[in-house]
Amino acid sequence: MMEGTRGHAAALEVLDLEVRFASRRLFGSGGEVRAVDGVSFHVDPGEVFCIAGESGCGKTTLGRALLGLLRRHSGEISISGLDPERLRGEELRRFRRQVQVVFQDPMGSLNPRQSVYEAVAEGVRIHGLRRSWPKPWRGLGSGHPSASSSATRTSYPVDSASGWSSRPP
Description:
Layout: E1 12-23, E2 31-43, H1 59-66, E3 74-79, H2 89-98, H3 116-126, H4 150-154
């Protein structure tokens, strides 16, 4: 991996990344789909980086590979010097607390069977963050009634017409 342009390690560096999936065909032998094919980029600390493209071009697959949620076929990924695919146990948990991919369709990221409260509380509960949060938020994930308003606890993603789940055009 290369050194950043400011004399230190890159915040994010990807070199010749490929992600492939097995393909099934009705007749004949199966093949491979190259969902991400030869992607390379370099982001220095403090820079803002956005991935944009047509529907189906591999943006989500790239994001999942960066987080280590998908195995890459080839190439290298370094996030602050760490390769997410090689992390295990507590090191992986610490890494996942620090990184985030914001997908284009926020409603696609929400479970329609979970209330808004449950969706927010899940991450807090998984990472054991209740005690480090400001006092009004500490009840998230605890089931304590003072943790949120009854409207938040009982509202679902479908109840939000164009509110908190949508970003401005």
